[in-house]
Amino acid sequence: MHIIRRLVLFSALLLAFAFVLSSAAGKPAAPVPALATPPPAATPTATGGNGATPSQHVVGESLMIEWGGSWWAATTLAVLNDGRVVIHYTGWGAEWDELATPKRIRREVQGAATYTAKEAVFVEWKGSWWPAHVKKVEGKDKYGIRYDGYGPEWDEVVGPSRIKRLSPPEG
User: Fold this and answer.
1) pLDDT in tens, 142-164
2) Cβ–Cβ under 8 Å, residues 64 and 108
3) Range of 45's domain?
4) Residue 74 sits in a domain of what CATH number?
5) Residue 94 phi, psi (nearest 5)
6) What is the residue-wise DSSP string for 23-88?
7) Maximum Cα–Cα distance for the chain, whole Å?
8) Total of domains in the chain
9) Is 142 part of any domain?
10) Does residue 148 belong to any structural domain of this protein?
11) How many C-beta neighbours within 10 Å does residue 20 have?
12) In this structure, is residue 23 part of a structural domain?
């Protein structure tokens, strides 16, 4: 009986340790295919359908969400009356769905697809979007950029598929 009790205790500790490790690991290095799951059921504070809310977000809207210092594409699943948005990260499993506060939300700004020197932009690098500034227009659809907070060793030239404007933070 004493050995069985020790095995049960050891198994419980091992499971707790595995849970802590998996919770602390952060997002996986590569995107995981999203599961086709329906949006969470509406709560009394969530708006339904595609109606406008105080923050003017609508269900199904594409947003950019700050997470871990970079910006990630997401879709609105529900909008709460207090301005928070339930989001699903594009290309990630439902386990990453979360509430985002207005400070972490930005929208893509529509407009001309050309950029000027010193303009603040966002640049895609390995699946996430990072704040940067255009250093120099290198030619048609080519922009020399510097990532904000990084040195010149990270400078690169990017094309239109990797650069965009985002709105200021909402909060």
Assistant:
1) 999 999 999 999 999 999 999 99
2) yes
3) 32-106
4) 2.30.30.140
5) -60, -20
6) HHS-S-SSPPPPP--PPPPPPTTB--TT---TT---TT-EEEEEETTEEEEEEEEEEBTTS-EEEE
7) 77
8) 2
9) yes
10) yes
11) 10
12) no
Q: Is residue 96 part of a domain?
A: yes
Identify the band that residue 2 occupies on the pLDDT scale cut at 50, 70 and 90. low
Name the more confident of 37 and 104. Answer: 104
What mean pLDDT, rounded, does the chain reach? 75
Cα 78 from Cα 63, distance rounded (Å): 13
98/127 same-domain check: no
CA distance 169 to 103: 5
Is this model's pTM higher than 0.70 or not?
A: no
